[in-house]
Amino acid sequence: MAPPMTTPQPVLFLGHGSPMNAIEDNEFRRSWQDLGKRLRRPKAILCISAHWETRGVYVTGSEKPDTIHDFSGFPRALFDVRYRAPGSPELAHRVADLLDTVRVHVDPQRGLDHGAWGVLQPMFPDADIPVVQLSLSGLQPGAWHYDLAKSLGPLRDEDVLVVASGNIVHNLRLFRFNDPKPYDWAERFDEEIAEHIETRHHDGLLGYETLGTDALLAIPTPEHYLPLLYVLGMQRDEDEVSFFNEQVVSSISMRSIIMGQV
Prior knowledge:
Order of helices and strands: EHEEHHEHEHEHHHHEEEE
Helix content: 25-40%
Radius of gyration: 17 Å
CATH topology: Protocatechuate 4,5-dioxygenase, Chain B
Number of domains: 1
Oligomer: single chain
Shape: globular
Number of strands: 10
């Protein structure tokens, strides 16, 4: 990997919401485009997406990862998207070396799902930065993911941008497609999580199941929430925290986070 940098790369949590945000001209896509222009160009990107759950820990090892269209019922234009960023077997094996407390499987066939390319395509449209995905071990509790993330910290000094893609609040069952007005419980939970993040009270975010009735509605399944814990786990004492896209759309929070210096 690259020699240590003077200024580490930041860590990002991006609320990705609907797959259509990847191609629609809306405020979310525009915010990702703007962020891509502001960021220092990294050597490579490691993405933790809500849409790759596994038994155990996997990383993508393909030199030319495919674009996975892991959804249905959307316009043809979304299925036509191809994000042709190269992979990086070198970074995949570096991740495996850093996560030496678990067995990491390097998957030579897995491509990039929409949780990854849906945000990376607006940010880096030239698709010329190598991308590797790290899976979510779905059977593990929040504290396990948080601790695992700490082991990935050196990547920030090796010019690797870590992008976690999910949603703090994500309840599709209650989502109102024709009414974007946020549920009261969704706004309350989103604001509660933001306060924990601002005050660096991470412990209260790991066992999200204990955060009350709002949490049960906001996180009916954990996969969209868990990527947040990777960003929190990689936060350093000197990191500034900034939020953007602080909207709740019906039952989905689009709140996004930058940890560190852009």
